[in-house]
Amino acid sequence: MKKLLGILVLGLLWCNISFADNLEITDGDTIKLNGERIRFSGIDTPESIYRGKKQFCYLNEEKIDCANLSKLQLKEKIGANPISCEREKDKDFFGRTVAECFVKGESLSTFMVRSGYAFDFVKYSKKKYAEDEAYAKANKLGLWTMEFEYPWEWRKKIREQNK
After folding, report:
1. Are 44 and 150 in contact (CB under 8 A)?
2. What is the pLDDT of residues 50-61, one digit of tens each?
3. What are phi and psi for residue 117, nearest 5 degrees?
4. Any idea what the CATH number is for the domain that residue 136 is in?
């Protein structure tokens, strides 16, 4: 029995699978899995908090916490399912692991962009998610039903205000 358990544990480590009880969802493009902070490669979502400010979207002039909407969409998608991640070699500017993560074989990045709760971050994705974003935009899914600033443009504006 111990040998079987050992083989199972080694198999899970080798396959790079983690279970959702070791998961914290930071926002729509960042998770903490078994203590490791992972930023989804090639996508971007509204900011929960950046330099002390929170990013909002607007729907009929009503202020919407779109960062939280993205986070909730990701949380719902993952549920209690195991997650596997394909990590990139280099970490990001903030020291986070950069990876594409999957649930039941489906890319969470693709899902988030295609459902309209994340954007193709072309600077890093090389347009990997462009078709998914076009689909979400054309069908007015998720954040595409609202007025918003792309997260990278919003962060740039905040940085310039803080100079």
Report:
1. yes
2. 999 999 999 999
3. -105, 5
4. 2.40.50.90
